[in-house]
Amino acid sequence: MTKLKLFRRQGTSQKTGETEFQESLVKIAIVGNPNVGKSVVFNRLTGRHAVISNYPGTTVDVSRGKANLDGRQVEIIDTPGMYSFLPLTEEERVARKIILEEEPEVVLHVVDAKNLERMLPLTIQLIEAGLPVVLELNMMDEAESNGLEIDITRLEHEIGIPVVATVAVTGRGMDTLWQTIASARPPRWQTPVQHGEVVEAALHRITGILRGNYNISNRSIGLFLLEEDREITEHVREKEEANFDSIREVVIQTRDAYSQPLSYVITLSHQQRVKDILGDVIASHDKVRQGFAEKLSRAMMHPLSGGLIFLFVTFVGLYLFVGVFGAGILVDFIEGTVFGQWINPWLTDISTRFIPWEIARDLLVGDYGIFTLGLTYAFAIVLPIVGTFSLVFAIIEDSGYLPRLAMLIDRLFKFIGLNGRAVIPIVLGFGCDTMATIVTRTQETKRERVITTLLLALAIPCSAQLGVIFGILSGSTAALFIWIGTLILVFLLVGSLAARVLPGERASFYMEVPPLRLPRISNVLSKTASRLEWYLVEVLPMFIIASVVLWLGELTGVFSYIISGLEPVVESIGVPGDAAVAFFYGFFRRDFGAAGLYDLHSAGILTGIPLVVSAVTITLFVPCIAQFLVMVRERGIRTALSIALFIFLFAFLVGYVLNWILTGLGVTI
Question: 354-359: which pairs have CB atoms within 8 A and are 24 or more residues apart?
Answer without folding.
Answer: 359/555
